[in-house]
Amino acid sequence: MYKRILLKLSGEQLQGQFDGGFDADRAAWIADEIKKATSAEIIVMIGGGNYARGAQLVGKGVQRVTADNIGMMATIMNAVALADVFNSKGLAARALTNLTLDQVADQFTHRRALSHLAKGRVVIVAGGIGRPYLTTDTAAVSLALELECDAILKATKVDGIYDSDPTKNADAKKLVTLTYQQALEQPDVKIMDKAALGLALEHTQPLVVFELLQLGNIAKAIAGEKIGTTISS
Ligand code: UDP
Question: Which of 73, 84, 183, 225 is an S-S bond match for 220, by CB 3.0 to 4.6 Å?
Fold first, then answer.
């Protein structure tokens, strides 16, 4: 059983039944799933790909820094809506942001995050690291290190990492455990960007990749049950 975990949710997971944007029903479903694991302290690093990704917006005059700022603002939209839905479902939550937007959400500080956790609240962190040229995956690893999380649980569409693409290869085998070195070297492993994996490798931060949309999976991952793929040193 992990005591403190970082749950990485991508923006796509919040769009639920829609092609983009925020699906409150999906957010409510996630709240119910997190409630099954009440004893752990939970930090959520939220993505923004359901609204905007920097790399896709850049060009035709839009600069990379501008595009990434838009991407980070997208994560703030997700975080404040997610916090509202969690609170409405009886799951106490607060949104903090690393990209300052004072009127919308409190700025992330280490002490503020710890104080919310001590009060039993889920801390939802937006704005990635608050700087361009990064992703919320890298931000997730950095934050998990900063807050001394026992593990990063990365929720995905698939039930773990395979030795080849399971949608193209019927013989693809699921890997139950993987070292960071293997994850970095395998071209088929695209579960996280290399910067994120490199940071996790350097600091031996355990990472579990698991399928979100299975009832009980978040609680199982937090309980340390062997689901998905565990990456460690
Ligand atoms: N982003 C950034 N710095 C960060 C985190 C995110 O510039 O520290 C930007 C980047 O443009 C990224 C976008 O915010 O594409 C949304 O984050 P991400 O793509 O990681 O979201 P996800 O794919 O998890 O939904």
Answer: 225
